[in-house]
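Quick one, tokens below:
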């Protein structure tokens, strides 16, 4: 990429304010935490429902970022950098990606469907990369943000692209089509996923088919519902289990020993294909992959030899407990430059250990000369503050001098024979390797051994559930996540790190020791302690936790210790009893509470909260409304008489859904994060978090 700011003005239809219109752009970023080559980075300040990247611009200028796409120039930043001012920074990112895509003219495979997009994409990359320099969407980057970032990663060394597009409602696919512009379309399937975003199935099909409006060919499972939306210039290339008129007719499936043998007709000839799967979804995804190979005119012997090596695709980086108090990020089935960036971002977010190690194999099919490739890898290693690199492979061994602290081995067997000398302890370890290196053997060595029943937590599902409830919030409403009882038994530190990565506003724990554990694990978010004992107040202060105060006795006890420590404006949270009658200041104690705090500079009221007793019971909604009204009245009185502006919050998980007009300044999400709702209609949209 080599585009100037001056070029970008017309690409984005932007107004320019700045210092250097000829500045060259060779990198795009939307994440202030993961930047490389800052001077030549163009940073798009995206605005989300709960975060605005404009807030980070001053800090980015301080570390050398000089080029920004913004909706407005932040105060005190004029004449300090180049600013391209646009109406909508996400639209601008998409425009930039669409322009950049237009500069390349090699085949692009575009995939969409209700399920299977990422799996088919990864399989096609595996099947085609021996013959092409492939650029593909990293992981599941198929959204309005993920697609442009994926396409912008194309460089002149690539000669085949594979990009997936995911939509959840109308009007989204048209934007993604302009960015991907596939020449080859693959429709994996049409199922019930994201049904809530469409009025009826026909609308869903119509919207997904927009991706292929200018494609030369569409690969799909034969269906009249689909065929009426195939444009005149697009060739239909179909397969079927039932329709003999399909281009590929699969007339027999035989399953034995976890393998399936498919018998199919293609161009009047009969073929057999053995694949290492027996489930329906994997068989259909394998046929979609087969269709692409047939379209590319691969010999049947090559198809068989490659497809029998297909593997299950792990849809997320797995974070595992390791030996000697280590944390392992297992990405042991792929090694390409783009996915390395993603994996290093995940490693960066695992901040419970200062020491970070990367175990990395040779990188294949990058499109760069090896010297240039490993220089780029070394730059990534430095920018992500990696302490140690362990390289495995002939090529990375040749370029070990590119890295400041690097040990190399010719192959995995040599690494294993030297394993005991390497001293892995109290560190985060990223294991990133091409499948041929069999890094699963390294994972087995480093993984903590256990013979107990294990509850596996799907962090992707937690992220999905969090975003589901975030979508229900009004602009500027904050969100507190309850990780008390160590995440309802789900691994509090790992979940807290994920929530911190998603930029939630607060964490809540039941007891001080839970909060201390999170702080010791590297969590920087503010943490409220819901049930602090007076004996824990000193520890709360020492670890900068924030106590919930729910009685005059507790308030006086905390003030006494705070004064002894000469504290000023230490944050506390005042809980009101509005009807649950468990804990909290009742109405008849509010005047004394105000009197105690008036003129007091030792503490500050960070928030005022209450707990609803019946937010999940429709028959008691009248009582719930009375609680909300009492909370509003009492908290307003405290605010006015003490002249303070605390955060106010009363809604829990069920309250978020059932009382959307009373969100106040913040809501508290608890059991909903883990996929549990009292509302049957809402429950079907949440994802299960844990499996045994």
């Amino acid at each position: 990429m080599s585009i100037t700011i001056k070029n970008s003005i017309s690409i984005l239809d932007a107004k320019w304010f700045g210092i250097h219109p000829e500045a060259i752009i060779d990198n795009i970023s939307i994440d202030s935490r993961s930047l490389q080559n800052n001077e030549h980075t163009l940073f798009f300040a995206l605005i989300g429902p709960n975060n605005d990247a404009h807030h980070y611009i001053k800090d980015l200028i301080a570390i050398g970022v000089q080029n920004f796409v913004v909706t407005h120039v932040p105060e005190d930043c004029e004449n300090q950098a180049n600013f391209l001012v646009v109406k909508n920074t996400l639209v601008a990112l998409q425009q930039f990606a669409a322009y950049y895509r237009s500069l390349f003219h090699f085949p692009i495979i575009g995939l969409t469907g209700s399920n299977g997009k990422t799996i088919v994409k990864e399989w096609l990359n595996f099947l085609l990369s021996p013959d092409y320099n492939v650029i593909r969407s990293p992981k599941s980057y198929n959204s309005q943000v993920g697609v442009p970032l994926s396409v912008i990663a194309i460089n002149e060394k690539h000669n085949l692209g594979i990009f997936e597009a995911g939509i959840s409602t109308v009007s989204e696919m048209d934007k993604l089509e302009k960015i991907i512009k596939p020449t080859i379309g693959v429709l994996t399937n049409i199922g019930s996923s994201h049904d809530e975003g469409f009025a009826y199935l026909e609308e869903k099909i119509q919207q997904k088919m927009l991706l292929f409006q200018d494609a030369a060919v569409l690969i799909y499972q034969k269906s009249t519902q689909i065929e009426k939306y195939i444009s005149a210039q697009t060739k239909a290339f179909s397969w079927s289990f039932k329709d003999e008129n399909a281009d590929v007719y699969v007339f027999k499936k035989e399953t034995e020993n976890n393998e399936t043998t498919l018998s199919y007709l293609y161009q009047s000839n009969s073929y057999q294909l053995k694949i290492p799967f027996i489930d329906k979804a994997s068989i259909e995804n394998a046929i979609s992959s087969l269709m692409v190979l047939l379209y590319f005119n691969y010999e049947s012997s090559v198809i068989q030899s490659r497809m029998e090596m297909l593997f299950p695709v792990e849809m997320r980086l797995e974070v595992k407990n390791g030996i000697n108090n280590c944390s392992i990020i297992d990405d042991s089935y792929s090694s390409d430059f783009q996915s390395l960036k993603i994996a290093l971002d995940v490693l960066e977010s695992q901040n419970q250990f200062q020491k970070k190690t990367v175990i990395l194999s040779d990188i294949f099919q990058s499109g760069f000369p090896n010297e240039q490739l490993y220089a780029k890898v070394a730059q990534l290693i430095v920018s992500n503050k990696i302490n140690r690199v362990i390289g495995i492979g002939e090529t990375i061994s040749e370029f070990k001098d590119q890295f400041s602290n690097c040990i190399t081995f010719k192959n995995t067997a040599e690494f294993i024979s030297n394993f005991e000398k390497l001293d892995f302890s109290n560190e985060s370890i990223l294991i990133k390797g091409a499948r041929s290196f069999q890094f699963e053997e390294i994972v087995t060595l480093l993984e903590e051994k256990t013979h107990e029943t294990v509850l596996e937590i799907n962090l992707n599902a937690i992220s999905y559930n969090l975003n589901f409830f975030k979508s229900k919030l009004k602009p500027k409403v904050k969100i507190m996540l309850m990780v008390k009882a160590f995440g309802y038994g789900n691994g509090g530190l790992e979940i807290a790190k994920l929530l911190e990565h998603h930029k939630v506003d607060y964490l809540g724990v039941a007891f001080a020791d839970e909060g201390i554990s999170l702080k010791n694990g590297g969590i920087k978010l503010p943490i409220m302690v819901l049930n602090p004992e007076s004996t824990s107040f000193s520890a709360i202060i020492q670890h900068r936790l924030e106590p919930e105060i729910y009685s005059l006795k507790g308030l006086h006890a905390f003030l006494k210790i705070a004064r002894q420590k000469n504290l000023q404006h230490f944050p506390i949270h005042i809980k009101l009893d509005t009807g649950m009658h468990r804990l909290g200041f009742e109405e008849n104690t509010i005047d004394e509470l105000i009197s105690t705090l008036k003129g007091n500079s030792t503490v500050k009221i960070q928030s005022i909260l209450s707990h609803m007793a019946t937010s999940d019971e429709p028959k008691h909604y009248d009582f719930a409304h009375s609680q909300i009204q009492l909370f509003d009245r009492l908290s307003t009185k405290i605010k006015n008489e003490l002249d303070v502006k605390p955060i106010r919050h009363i809604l829990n998980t069920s309250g978020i859904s059932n009382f959307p007009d009373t969100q106040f300044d913040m809501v508290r999400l608890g059991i909903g994060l883990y996929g549990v709702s009292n509302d049957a209609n809402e429950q079907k949209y949440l994802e299960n978090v844990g499996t045994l």
